[in-house]
Each structure stands twice: as C-alpha cells, then as structure tokens.
Design brief:
By secondary structure, this protein is α/β, with parallel strands linked by helices. The chain has two domains: 242 residues, Alkaline Phosphatase, subunit A (3-Layer(aba) Sandwich); 144 residues, no CATH class. Helices cover 35% and strands 18% of the residues. The strands form two sheets. The protein has an eight-stranded mixed sheet, with helices on both faces. Strands 3, 4, 5, 6 and 7 form a five-stranded antiparallel sheet that branches. Helix 10 links the parallel strand 8 and strand 9.
Length: 406
C-alpha cells in the first residue's frame, strides 16, 4: 500500500459538444457508453469550468495552459513556440515561430478562390509529410527562415528575429470555406502569403501527392501558416503547485507546454494524436511515472478533437468510449494500490460537430478522490448533468488549485 497522494488528469481534447441530431439530439458524451466516467461522476464532484478567459481565442494552447493552472492572460505568448520547444528547435528571445499545416485545398486556378477542404490532409502520415516539408525548405529556406518537420500535418516555421505584425487564421476554423477572407494580413503578411501560394504550385504535382490521390487520399497541396509567437517563460509546475509532474501526449503543443513548465514529457510508442492511438500505452506510462516518484501526471488525448474538426459524430462517440474503456479502466486498476489518489477527467474546450471548430463554452469536469468517495446519485458525466449540479469554476487555474490543494 502506497501512502503518498497521487494526482492524474485525463484530458479528452475537444470532448464537449452540443446536442447532435445524428445522435438522437444527444451530445457525444451523452450518447457514449462510458461506465468509468459515469462512476466517477456518481462518486465525485462534477461541475462546469471556464477554461478560456473572456476575449481570448478558444485554442487548445490557451485551454491546456489554463487547465494546468497558468493564467493565459499573463503567460500566453503564442501556440507555435510551445510546439517548437517540444520539437527541440533552438529559439532565441527575438525569434518568432509559426505553426505550419499541410492542408488540402480545392483546385480553383486563383489561390484566393480555393476552399479549405481539410486542415490535416486526411491526417497525412509523418513519413509523407517529412518529404513534403523538405521540399518546402528547398524552395524557401534562407538565412532567416527555416521549416522544421513535425508529426503528421503539424510542422513549424522559424523566423529569426521575426515580426509579429500579422493577422493569421487557424485552418481548422475555416473548413469548407473559401480562403480569401482568411489569408495572412498585417504589415508583414505578404511574405507568408507568397510562400503559401507558391507552395501550392510545387506541392500539387509532387510524387507523394500523386500517390496519395491514387490511393483515394486528399493531397497535401499547400502549406498554411498561423499560430505565431515568441518563446514563453513559465514558472515551473513544481514552483507553482509543489508537485512533481509529467505530461503524456502525442501532440507537440501539449508536450512543449509540459517541457516549458519543467515537467517531464513522456513519449509513448504508437501514440498518434488520432482515433487510432495507443490508449493503454498512455495509461500504463502514467502509472510508471507515478511509481518513479512523480506526484502528478497529465494525460492528453487528441482523438475527440480531431473527430470534431472532421465532423465525424460516430467516431467522436467512439473516441470517448475508447478513453473510458482503455485509459480509465487501466488507470483505476493501477491506482488502486495507493492509499489515496485524485483523478480528474475533463475536456480543454468543446469542439462541436455542428461547426467543426472550438468554442469558449464551459466544459464538464469531474474530480474523484478514493478516500472521499460518495454517492451523489445516478449521474452521467456530460455537459447537462454537470450544469445541473450548479457548480461552476471560473477558470482552469481555480480548478487546478481545487484539484491539487483543496
């Protein structure tokens, strides 16, 4: 029997939603079979939490920063620097990084007339994407610009002593829309637009994309540059909360956030950031971190968010069910050896199927503590049951303080 308190967060990215006609006017959380989440709700504290400060965009960067207990209004410096840190890209204080997606656009002659078909190019493989980003570098790399390959469609542009004079749009916010109103704007936007437009010319005919089309996949026929920012400076998670922590994620954004916070980032084999990821491997890695002396582990699972962006209702329900069956089952069994522990489940933000992008609505959370198990009633873990409790936490920082210190 282990005596020290352990803390585990399971974050299902974009898991919250609105009622969906396709699911009988239920949300995916309501429609999913999730006995473990419902058990936690029935025996723990459930409520709603506002993870996005008013006036800030509802991105996973801001939301996860908030959930980890950092005030985004104080510490947020952009999305891509967090990814760059995870990727090991060297950054100086004046450098600017950008997220660079490989996207699928329609085929109109004029670049501005094209439509954003897929922000992920059919979740292009990392191997294919690396070849395409190498081609992008051949065309555009110079003494102050360089592209770095990442995972699947997610890559990075580093601009030495760069500018922040931009108005840039995330590609997942404009799915099935004409791109003209969302092209780079601002004092230095022309350079980014030029690279995006020219990339379409040589990527469209690249052998990798010809082979993808032959297999019935969408081509990665353009880069899309967004998410600019400079290197963040965060107090360590230990200094902030007095807990030694690890983060487990397949996406560079959350891994970089953990590293920036002085946490250990744990790589898990076959963790992909998609529906077909290594769910058990993430749970088992979390338990190993606790056994090695960590007090806190943050498990991030991207799959529900990707399904929300793609408008795939059945797959979003399946993602939730897989988290319940293959992450929470392993965790609950493995945590039982500790005399006490706390387990929290929540999304970072909603990614509603109906609009296929993020919103700032409050999200449902549940906190379960082994030694304080109580029967609250036959509750379901979902948006509406959480609202009915009347409990509302005003920020992610408030929630994390309650989870760790209350």
């Amino acid at each position: 029997m282990e005596n020290e308190m352990k803390y585990v967060v399971v974050l299902g990215d974009g898991m919250a939603d609105y009622p969906v006609k396709e699911l009988g006017n239920k949300t995916p959380l309501q429609a999913a079979s999730k006995p473990n989440m419902d058990f936690l709700a029935a025996h723990g504290e459930m409520g709603l939490v506002h993870t996005i400060p008013e006036g800030l965009a509802p991105g996973s960067d801001i939301a996860n920063l908030s959930v980890l207990g950092y005030d985004p209004e104080k510490y947020y410096t952009g999305r891509s620097p967090l990814e760059a840190i995870s990727m090991g890209i060297p950054m100086e204080s004046g450098d600017v990084t950008f997220r660079t997606n490989l996207v699928s656009l329609s085929y109109e002659k004029d670049y501005a007339d094209r439509i954003m078909l897929d922000h992920s190019s059919d979740e292009i493989s990392t191997e294919e994407a690396s070849i395409l980003i190498e081609e992008v570098n051949k065309h555009f790399r110079n003494d102050f610009l360089a592209f770095y390959p990442g995972v699947s469609y997610r890559h990075c542009l580093l601009w030495k002593n760069g500018s922040l004079n931009f108005d840039l749009t995330p590609p997942h916010d404009i799915l099935e829309k004409k791109i003209a109103p969302y092209l780079p704007k601002g004092k230095d936007g022309d350079l980014l637009l030029q690279m995006m437009s020219e990339s379409c010319e040589f990527l469209s005919n690249h052998p990798v994309n010809k082979e993808r089309i032959r297999r019935g996949k969408k081509p990665a026929n353009s880069i899309w540059i967004w998410g600019e920012g400079r290197k963040p400076i965060l107090p360590s998670f230990f200094d902030l909360h007095g807990r030694k922590g690890s983060v487990i994620s397949a996406v560079d954004l959350v891994k970089g956030l953990g590293i920036s916070a002085g946490m250990k980032s744990v790589d898990v084999a076959n963790a992909t950031g998609t529906l077909e990821t290594n769910y058990e491997g993430k749970a088992e890695a979390a338990l190993k971190e606790l056994e090695k002396g960590k007090d806190f582990v943050y498990i991030h699972i991207e799959a529900p968010d990707e399904c929300g962006h793609r408008g795939e209702a059945e797959n979003k329900v399946r993602a939730i069910e897989l988290i319940d069956a293959r992450v929470l089952t392993v965790l609950l069994k493995g945590l039982d050896k500790y005399e006490d522990y706390r387990l929290m489940v929540l999304p970072d933000h909603p990614t509603p199927l109906s609009i296929r992008t993020h919103t700032s609505d409050p999200v449902p959370y549940v906190i379960y503590q082994k030694s304080r198990k109580r029967l609250s009633g036959p509750l379901s873990y979902d948006e509406f049951s959480a609202k009915e409790t009347g409990i509302v936490r005003t920020s992610g920082q408030c929630l994390m303080n309650r989870f760790l210190h209350s």
